[in-house]
Specification:
The chain has one domain (2-111). The protein contains 2 helices and 3 strands; from the N terminus they run H-H-E-E-E. The protein has helices spanning 7-54, 57-67; strands at 72-77, 81-93, 99-111. Helix 1 runs antiparallel to helix 2 (57-67).
Length: 119
């Protein structure tokens, strides 16, 4: 009886430790995905604004590639607006340390100013 005295406490601590590790992995994963998504959206917005104000879709592509070199960037233009889409893969750690990759997308559309001079 004496040797089993702290077994329940040790079992509870072990299960709690494993639970905390799993929850922390989920928190880190959500944080990384959120940060990558915010960065992709911000870069897309900046590239679209700069491309619409001062240049053309090629300038927007160059700006986006300079800011996020590992991302897949597309820029399309209509007569009145410039749209930039950025896709970036985020490396994550899955269960049991297995590597995972998730793609996040950032989109932005900016209208051309009717008062800007066209190149």
């Amino acid at each position: 009886m004496r040797s089993e005295r702290g077994a329940a406490l040790i079992g509870t601590l072990a299960i709690g430790f494993v639970f905390v590790l799993m929850i922390s992995q989920v928190i880190v994963t959500v944080g990384r995905l959120g940060a990558a998504s915010a960065e992709a959206s911000e870069v897309a917005s900046y590239a679209a604004q700069q491309g619409a104000r001062y240049g053309d879709p090629d300038d927007a592509l160059r700006i986006a590639h300079d800011l996020m070199p590992d991302a897949e960037v597309t820029a399309t233009t209509t007569g009145a607006s410039l749209s930039v889409v950025i896709r970036v893969e985020v490396p994550l750690v899955g269960p049991a340390g297995s590597p995972l990759r998730q793609t996040v997308t950032g989109r932005a559309t900016t209208t051309y100013s009717p008062y800007r001079s066209r190149p």
